[in-house]
Amino acid sequence: MSKFSNQRIKKVTAYTPGEQPKDRRYVKLNTNESPFAPSPYALRLARLAAADLKLYSDPECRELTAAAAEAFGIEKDEIIFTNGSDEALNFAFAAFCDENNGAAFPDITYGFYKVFADLYGVPTVEIPLKDDFSVDVNDYIGVYKTVFIANPNAPTGKALSVGEIEKTVKGNPENVVVIDEAYVDFGAQTALPLIKKYDNLLIVRTFSKSRSLAGGRLGFAIGNKELIADLNRVKYSTNPYNVNRMSQAAGLGALCDSEYFDYCREKIINNRNYLSMQLKSRGFEAVDSLANFIFAKKAGVAGKEIYLKLKEKGVLVRHFDTPRLTDYVRITVGSKEELDFLLEALEEIL
Amino acid sequence: MSKFSNQRIKKVTAYTPGEQPKDRRYVKLNTNESPFAPSPYALRLARLAAADLKLYSDPECRELTAAAAEAFGIEKDEIIFTNGSDEALNFAFAAFCDENNGAAFPDITYGFYKVFADLYGVPTVEIPLKDDFSVDVNDYIGVYKTVFIANPNAPTGKALSVGEIEKTVKGNPENVVVIDEAYVDFGAQTALPLIKKYDNLLIVRTFSKSRSLAGGRLGFAIGNKELIADLNRVKYSTNPYNVNRMSQAAGLGALCDSEYFDYCREKIINNRNYLSMQLKSRGFEAVDSLANFIFAKKAGVAGKEIYLKLKEKGVLVRHFDTPRLTDYVRITVGSKEELDFLLEALEEIL
Question: What value of ipTM does the predicted structure carry?
Answer without folding.
Answer: 0.97
